[in-house]
Amino acid sequence: MQQYAGYISDVTRVWPVNGKFTPAQRELYTAVLNVQRSCISLCRESASLSLDKIHDIAERSLREQLDSIGFNTSGNAMRTLFPHHVGHHIGLSVHDCGGYSRQEMLRKGQCITIEPYDFLIPKQNRLINEC
Q1: Confidence of residue 94 (pLDDT cuts 50, 70, 90)
Q2: CB distance 52 to 105 below 8 Å
Q3: Which of 53, 58, 109, 120 lies in the 20 to 30 Å Cα band around 41?
Q4: Total number of domains constituting the chain
Q5: Dihedral through CA 16, CA 17, CA 19, CA 24, nearest 10?
Q6: Which structural domain, as residue segments, surrounds residue 36?
Q7: What sign does the dihedral 49-53-55-56 (CA atoms) show?
Q8: Cα dist from 59 to 2, 22, 92, 109, 125, whole Å
Q9: Residue 41, in any domain of the structure
Q10: Rounded CA separation 12/114 (Å)
Q11: For residues 32 and 118, is the Cβ–Cβ distance under 8 A?
């Protein structure tokens, strides 16, 4: 966990254990990074979006990115690959903003996370280690 100015949040980073991405790992890393950057750009009051709407956009974008690099995302695959919400409010504790609905429009001054990572099945040989 990290703390800054009284706010606490979890921090997730991804890197290859041996220091160098394989081509498949680089593709996947880039795909998820593209989705994250896109979603972060939507985190402004003028976008008139809620965390739930950003989640919908993230899931759709992630499906498109994964399809483009050869993943089968048909059926319920996204429930396995992306089983969590794209983000949450943060505050004086990592998840302490339980009173805020993910359906409310984001407003200036709110602190949220955007974390669109994947859970991959190791047998696909495209696993990126999350630390």
Answers
A1: low
A2: no
A3: 120
A4: 1
A5: -30
A6: 2-10+23-122
A7: negative
A8: 27, 25, 28, 25, 22
A9: yes
A10: 11
A11: yes
Q: Which residue has the higher pLDDT, 76 or 6?
A: 76
One-letter identity of residue 20? K
**pLDDT of amino acid 74:** 92
Cα gap 104→99, rounded to integer Å:
11
What's the pTM value of the predicted model, to 2 decimals? 0.80
- The per-residue DSSP string of 49-105 comes to -BHHHHHHHHHHHHHHHHHHTT----TTHHHHHS-S-S--B-BSSTT--TTS-TTSB
Residue with tokens 């976008």: 47
pLDDT of residue 102: 87
Write down the pLDDT at residue 9.
Answer: 73
Q: What is the CATH number of the domain that holds 95?
A: 3.90.230.10
